[in-house]
Amino acid sequence: HSPTRDIFLAGLTLTPQLHAVGQGWRRGAVHCPRPTCASRAVLTTVPEIAHHALARRRRVCEAPPDAGGMSVEQELAAVIPYFPYKNLERFYDMQGLLKHPALFQKACDTMADRYKEMGITKVAGFEARGFLFTPVAVRLGVPFIMLRKTGKMPNTVSSAPYTKEYEGVDVMCMQRGAVVEGDKVLLIDDLLATGGTLCSGIELVKSMGASVIECGCLVELKALKGHDRCIAAGATGAWGLLSEELLTVAAELPDNYVDDGTPH
Questions:
Q1: Catalytic annotation, pick one of 27, 57, 114, 129
Q2: Pick the catalytic residue: 75, 127, 165, 220?
Q3: 59 assigned to active site
Q4: Do 238 and 195 meet the contact criterion of CB atoms below 8 Å apart?
Q5: Contact of 183 with 121, CB cutoff 8 Å
């Protein structure tokens, strides 16, 4: 589009030519009074106005769906599609939520609000999608601790091998001294499924003399009973912001879609 058309889309009719006409100014075909000192301060060049118009159009395109009276949970679920992936009928895609910064911020704020009165001293997130929830720690004003797979960072303490959500086993690590005796830790991740990964984190936190106040996740698959497994492992609580019943949006798949997922 031309700069002039982009300006028109922003609700303006200014063309690059400004012609003095008597005591007024002609902007394209629109006759306006000569600008006062106050109005001159906000006049700008055509390229600058075009830039702002384009920026406004981008914001409109990236806006989340109209909430229309929906709850926070329903708003979030509406932008998290599921794919047939890793031989699963429904693999919930976090990227859908990350396309909507305002909604992602709302998710993190909602999670933080849940924990602000629980005395949390550390938030620990699991590699890799758990790292997305660092804003929860920032909102709570506490340190964020990385829980990573073996061989990814120095000076670590390792968990016992655990069964991964899809297949195989792995080991989770935490840096020495990151959690200390008496800490009240929130373990955070994107998904609470079978609870295997979360239980490895519970073990690590307990080995430091600290306690897990809750395992908090964006999505909980209740049928897999990960909640009960986390409680049995020593967490005080386990919780998911979204239940599977709300996640009903199927991804639009191209004709050549292939399930190329590998276990992780």
A1: 129
A2: 165
A3: no
A4: yes
A5: yes
